[in-house]
């Protein structure tokens, strides 16, 4: 019997994030146990992020230099692809992630993607025009996200977005499933083509299957989107992965 092909995913992580690493490991463990062709592992590198805001200090956390340094450390592990598991391009602008990926590839020679760019690919594949948006963020951060999606033809109107006004990143991971269940219920009632749980420190990815079964719409969690895109870019067929969302059934 041939040995499974080993693929290493490099994941860039906000320093204060406590959700995305265990969720990423759980998803990949599910994938590895459901098939024998591949053994996929995740390897993480952090850079400083402690708050989410539009203040000068909050925005400065996402300057390219520290992120590129973290990516260079991942390159030491000879990962096959690097993914930024974060949503800052939602309020900074999608071009920020495009430039980041270009910078990573130039610095390391390794292809890169991000949670937000992957989400945008999924929205295009599903032809999403009305998107339900659930985040933990403040009013002004949420407004920038809505504005940036409007620019690419994705409407997030009144009644199909919910946010919680949280600034401290470690507090985001404490938001429970019962709260997220209620927020997803509310945005779906507004009539949407899909929902996104938009923050990689929300403990939400494990709940996607439940929401999709209940509401019969795709739910794109941003911890999941970056893994989906990294696997796709590595040529991995994940269409048989069960329990982590419809996104994996779409090639």
TrEMBL record:
Top-level taxonomic group: Eukaryota
Listed PANTHER family: BLR3294 PROTEIN
Protein name: Putative Asp/Glu racemase
Organism in which the protein naturally occurs: Hyaloscypha variabilis (strain UAMH 11265 / GT02V1 / F)
């Amino acid at each position: 019997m041939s040995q499974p092909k080993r693929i290493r995913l490099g994941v860039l992580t906000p320093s204060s994030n406590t959700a995305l690493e265990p969720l990423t490991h759980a998803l990949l463990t599910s994938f590895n146990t459901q098939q024998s062709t591949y053994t996929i592992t995740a390897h993480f590198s952090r850079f400083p992020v402690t708050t989410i805001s539009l203040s000068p200090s909050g925005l400065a956390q996402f300057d390219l230099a520290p992120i590129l340094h973290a990516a260079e450390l991942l390159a030491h592990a000879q990962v096959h692809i690097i993914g930024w598991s974060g949503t800052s391009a939602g309020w900074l602008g999608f071009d920020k992630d495009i430039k980041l990926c270009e910078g990573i590839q130039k610095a390391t020679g390794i292809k890169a993607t991000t949670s937000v760019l992957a989400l945008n690919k999924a929205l295009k594949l599903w032809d999403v025009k009305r998107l339900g948006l659930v985040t933990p963020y403040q009013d002004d951060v949420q407004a920038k996200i809505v504005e940036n999606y409007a620019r690419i033809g994705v409407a997030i109107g009144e009644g199909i977005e919910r946010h919680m006004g949280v600034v401290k990143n470690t507090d985001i991971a404490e938001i429970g499933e019962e709260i997220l269940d209620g927020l997803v219920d509310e945005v779906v009632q507004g009539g949407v083509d899909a929902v996104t749980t938009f923050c990689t420190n929300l403990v939400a990815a494990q709940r996607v299957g439940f929401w999709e079964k209940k509401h019969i719409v795709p739910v794109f969690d941003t911890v999941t989107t970056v893994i989906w895109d990294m696997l796709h870019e590595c040529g991995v067929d994940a269409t048989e992965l069960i329990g982590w969302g419809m996104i994996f059934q779409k090639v």
